[in-house]
Structure formats: C-alpha cells, structure tokens
Amino acid sequence: MPASRIILGSRSPRRRELLALLVPPEQIDVRPPLVLDELGFDGLASWLEIAQRLQRIAREKNDDVLTQRSDEGGLVLTADTVIVASDADARLQVLGQPPADEFWRDAVRGWFQDLYAGRSHIAATAVCLTDRPTGRRLERIVQSHVWVRDDVEPLLDWYLSTGESRGKAGGYALQGLASVFVTRVEGSITNVVGLPLEVLVEMLPQLGWALR
Which of 80, 87, 150, 157 is catalytic? Predict the structure, then answer.
C-alpha cells in the first residue's frame, strides 16, 4: 500500500518549505531526531571520507526517527548539509553551522575572507529516505558548486549584522541576503538551501509515492 505521508526528521523550516513544494503540507509530519549529538568531520582529509561521514549522519538521523514510533507507517526523510571548502593549502575544510556562542560572527567572517572570497566551494547534502513498513531505504549525496565574489569586505559587516548566518550550514543562506555574494551556482540550487528537490522527485516514486 502506498505511503500516505512523509515524516520529515528535521528542525529546519527551510527543509519543510522545500518539501511542501512537492508534497501537500497536510501530508508532512515533522518529527526531529531526539539525539542532538552528531558525528563530526575532524581528521577527514578526502572527499570520499567526508561524503561517507555525511551519509552516515543522515542515516543515523533516519534511524532515530524510525525508532520513535515503530507502529506508524509512512516514508521517513532525513538530510544533512555541509559546506566543503579548500583553504590556501588546498586542504578541505568542512563547515557546518556557525558556533552557537558569541563568537559566531568571527567564525563566519573568517569563512568568507579565507575560504569563500573569489573562489568556489561545494554545498553537499546527504539524503536518506526509508519506507517504514518495508524497511526499504534509498540514499543519495548531492553536490552543488557555489562561486563567491572577490570583494566580500564592503558588505560583510552589514551581512553579519543581519544575523542571517546563524543556524545555516556554512554561515550563509543562498535564498536570503547572502545571494548578494554569490556569482554563480552549478548544480541544484535547492541543494544549497538544504534539500535537493531534483533528487527527491526521483527517489519518492521509487518507494511508491505518486507526485502530483
């Protein structure tokens, strides 16, 4: 029997808004993971290691939501997004959300100055979708390349004053004010926001969800 609802395991209002473009809002049940501690990316030097860790995080979020109410049906959707940038020595740096303390501005300023300005970085999202009744699971990782203008300094103080960076992977929101810094995006735009719809329209029908 086809699923009649999607359980979104996320605290992100942006993910819910994006999912609602594909799925009627009344068929979306938001149920964030209960475990807040996530694996980190310290010590990972290659893209393969980073991608595997990112997918594991999305998978563990999915498992968390699945165990909350094991008697319910539906599809369980989880995702995790990070920014992967290269520093001056070509070492990969994985950027999640800025620190939750008073030093978040310093962190985001450093990211823009040292990792973003005048170069490209990758926005990567791991998606995990599970059909609760059957246990069938689909997983994907989506990459988008984002280019940032050279002269970020004239607008950086203003941007930080808006507070938009807080709670955003990589410290910026492409769909918001940070669009003034971005010169080009190659790949999925919704992936940069946090949920790649281009992949979901492929994954959902595979688990019996009819798009309409």
Answer: 80
Can you name the CATH fold of 6-206? Answer: Maf protein (3.90.950)
* 80 belongs to the catalytic site: yes
Interval 25-49: pLDDT, tens: 999 999 999 987 778 898 898 999 9
Compute the mean pLDDT over every residue in the chain, rounded to the nearest whole number.
94
Measured distance CA(179)–CA(206) in Å, rounded: 34
Note the pLDDT tens digit of each residue in 62-109: 999 999 876 678 999 999 999 999 998 889 999 999 999 999 999 999
Q: Give mean pLDDT, residues 168-197.
A: 96
